[in-house]
Amino acid sequence: MPLWVVLAGFLLAACGNDMRDQPRYDPLAPAPGWPNDQSARVPVEGTVARDESLQPVPDTLPEPLTRELLERGGQRYEIFCSPCHGDSGRGDGMVVQRGFPAPPSLHGAHLREIPLRHFYDVIENGFGRMYAYGARVPARDRWAIAAYIRALQLSQYAKLDDLAPRQRKQLQRESREDTP
Ligand code: HEC
Fold first, then answer.
1. Rounded Cα–Cα distance for residues 96 and 172 (Å)
2. Residue 130 lies in domain
3. Cβ–ligand 1 contact at 115 (below 6 Å)
4. Does ligand 1 have an atom closer than 6 angstroms to the CB of 116?
C-alpha cells in the first residue's frame, strides 16, 4: 500500500473523531452569553411549530368522543396532571403533598360548569402558578385530557338515573347487602 494512502487513512480517522467531539450543549444545560444564559431557545415570535395547526381552535371537542380518546386522555392526565391535581382531581397529588401550592379541586361548581375549551387553554398556556404544558401536550391530547376531566367530574356527581338499568340494579343490590 502506498504511503500516502496510509497517511490519508490517519487523516480521515482524525476527521471522524473531530465530528464526534463537536462542541454541543446537553439538553437544558446553561449557556453563558446567550439570552437568560440558557441553551434552550424559545420559538421566534410569530412562528408556528410544524405540528401546530394554523386553524382557529374550536370551542368544543373537534372530533367524536370515543372510548379511545377518553382512555388517551386518562393516560395523559395521569402523566401530566395527577402529580398535582391527584388521580381523583381533588388537588392532592404527590407534588402537593411535598409542599407545592395546592390547585383547586376540579370538582368545584365553577370548573364543572366551565366550557370544555377552558381546560384546553389552561393546558396550553398555564394558569396562575401552574406552568404551561403547550410544548409537551399537543392539541389532540389537550382535548383528550379535557374530555377526561369532564368524565372525572361526572363520575363524582352521577345520579342513579345516569346509570344503565343493569348497573342501577346491581348498585341497589349491593347497597341492600351493605345495610345490616
Ligand atoms: C406542578 C403542579 C401542577 C400540574 C402538574 C398541573 N397543574 Fe393545573 N394547577 C396547578 C395549580 C397550583 C393551580 C392553581 C393556579 C393558581 O390559581 O395560581 C392549577 C390550576 C388548574 C386549573 C384551574 C383553572 C381555573 O380556572 O381555576 C385547571 C383546569 C388545571 N390546573 C388543569 C390542569 C391540567 C389539565 C393539567 C395537566 C395537563 C395540570 N393542571 C397540571 C398545578 C398544577
1. 37
2. 65-157
3. no
4. no
Instruction: Give the pLDDT band of residue 1 (cuts 50, 70, 90).
Output: low
User: Is the shortest distance between the CB of 133 and ligand 1 below 6 Å?
Assistant: yes
Distance 130 CA to ligand 1 centre (A): 5
What CATH code is carried by the domain that includes residue 78? 1.10.760.10
At 58-70, the pLDDT tens digits run: 999 999 999 999 9
pLDDT at 86: 97
Q: How far apart are CA 7 and CA 15, in angstroms?
A: 13
Domains in the chain, number:
1
Q: Which of 72, 84, 141, 145 most suits a substitution to test ligand 1, by most atoms within 8 Å of the C-beta?
A: 84
Q: Is residue 26 a part of any domain in this protein?
A: no
How far, in Å, is the centroid of ligand 1 from the Cα of 81? Answer: 7
**Per the domain annotation, does 177 fall within a domain?**
no
Closest residue CA from atom 14 of ligand 1: 103
Report residue 25 as a C-alpha cell.
450543549
**Is the distance from the beta carbon of residue 128 to the nearest atom of ligand 1 less than 6 Å?**
yes
Domain membership flag for residue 180: no
Global pTM? 0.76
